[in-house]
Write a structure and sequence with these properties.
- The protein is α+β, with helices and mostly antiparallel strands.
- The protein folds into three domains: about 5-85, Winged helix-like DNA-binding domain superfamily/Winged helix DNA-binding domain (Arc Repressor Mutant, subunit A, Orthogonal Bundle); about 95-135 and about 290-355, Beta-Lactamase, CATH 3.30.450; about 140-285, no CATH class.
- Helices cover about 50% and strands about 15% of the residues.
- It contains twelve helices and eleven strands.
- The chain has helices at about 5-10, 15-30, 35-40, 50-60, 75-85, 95-105, 110-125, 180-195, 200-225, 255-285, 295-300, 330-355; strands at about 65, 75, 130-135, 140-150, 155-160, 165-170, 230, 240-245, 285, 305-310, 320-325.
- The strands form four sheets. A four-stranded antiparallel beta sheet has the order 4-5-6-9.
- It is elongated, with a radius of gyration of 29 Å.
- The two termini are about 45 Å apart.
- Keywords: Repressor, Stress response, Transcription, Transcription regulation.
Length: about 350
């Protein structure tokens, strides 16, 4: 797929024109485009046989396909990708479409969920595709956190915010986590969560880890200096302190107590590292609020495509996304600017309401 621009730049003008006209013809009608049709619309006078030869070359490159023997050609998925990346001419949003989008977002109702629902419905109506609207993630103090295991590689974090908002996010937990370790992580976090947002909570854990690290280093320094211990894999996740000549350590001595203290600090650091991983993954996890659309498997089907644009808050931070899902035979030139325009508008509106 990354070779697309290279193939395009190596094509001569005739090949590029044949390719563009086949794709545009297919996107407009949904039917294969034949050489005779192309001969009539080409900018230079060429025979149907010449056009057929060019189409065969494009088929050999994997850009076109012939669905039936002796029929016309349609673009392959690679061909569509290359057309969208290199040849697509994007128009402006039609005045009629813009009015419909503006009318949807112009309502004075303050409820963001209702706003995004209406955006989804309007996008579906205008584009005749399914629409996808990802809501902004909530950033407010947390009252309670719960982790729920869904499968070996999928977990759900349920966030109950102090303002009563409840949000579910799906994420992939760190390897080797069990239902009981998730419960333990949730209990630990709930004890610290009061009045903190998710990002502030993660910052608290990171600071705790830094303190543990300093304590371990201070305790271990004297032991390493005296030759009683040495570091293995220093600074890495697999690091450990190896004791030399354990028989030289008399139970109850200062060194023995230091080693015991270091061991418990290491255990604590490891536990906090896992919890920090949980929080980071939960923070970047998918918002499960998909208003209109379908499951992700839809996007991987060869017969469908997704035009999506993120929207940002006032700090230029991506907080959600707006998109249209439809067959690969979408009118990209029309839909791309519609999605882009809607995303920019939603970003501005959500930011304005956040200030209120």
């Amino acid at each position: 797929m990354s070779d697309g621009p290279k193939i395009l730049s190596e094509m001569n003008d005739r090949s590029r024109e044949v390719f563009r006209r086949v794709v545009e013809g297919y996107l407009a009608s949904g039917d294969p485009v034949g050489s005779r049709t192309l001969t009539r619309s080409m900018s230079e006078k060429v025979s149907a046989a010449t056009v057929r030869n060019v189409m065969q070359d494009l088929e050999y490159l994997g850009l076109l396909d012939s669905p039936h023997v002796s029929a016309g050609r349609i673009p392959t998925q690679l061909g569509l990708r290359m057309f969208v990346d290199g040849l697509l001419e994007v128009g402006a949003v039609a005045a009629e479409d813009r009015e419909k989008i503006d009318a949807t977002l112009g309502s004075n109702r303050q409820d963001v969920t209702s706003l995004l629902d209406r955006v989804g419905a309007t996008l579906s109506g205008i584009t005749r595709g399914a629409s996808l609207v990802l809501a902004p993630k909530h950033e407010a103090p947390i009252r309670h956190i719960e982790f729920v295991s869904l499968a070996a590689d999928r977990a759900l974090v349920v966030l109950v915010f102090a303002d009563g908002h409840v949000e579910n996010r799906v994420f992939t937990p760190p390897p080797g986590q069990t239902a009981s370790s998730m419960r333990e992580a949730a209990n630990f976090l709930n004890a610290l969560a009061e009045g903190k947002t998710l990002s502030e909570l993660r910052q608290t854990i990171v600071q705790e880890m830094s303190r543990r690290r300093q304590e371990i280093d201070a305790l271990a320094h004297a032991l390493v200096e005296s030759g009683l211990a040495l570091w293995e894999n220093p600074g890495e996740q697999t690091e450990r302190l190896i004791v030399r000549g354990r028989s030289n350590l008399i139970d109850g001595s200062t060194e023995a107590q230091d080693f015991e203290r270091i061991r418990s600090l290491f255990d604590d650091l490891e536990r906090k590292r896992d919890i920090a991983d949980f929080l980071e993954l939960a923070e970047s996890g998918e918002g499960v609020r998909i208003f209109i659309g379908s499951e992700n498997k839809l996007f991987s089907l060869s017969g469908s495509s997704l035009v999506v644009s993120p929207y940002m808050n006032a700090d230029r931070k991506i907080i959600g996304a707006v998109g249209v899902i439809g067959p690969t035979r979408l009118n990209y030139g029309r839909i791309v600017p519609i999605v882009d325009y809607t995303a920019q508008l939603v970003g501005r509106l959500v930011s304005d309401r956040g200030k209120g």
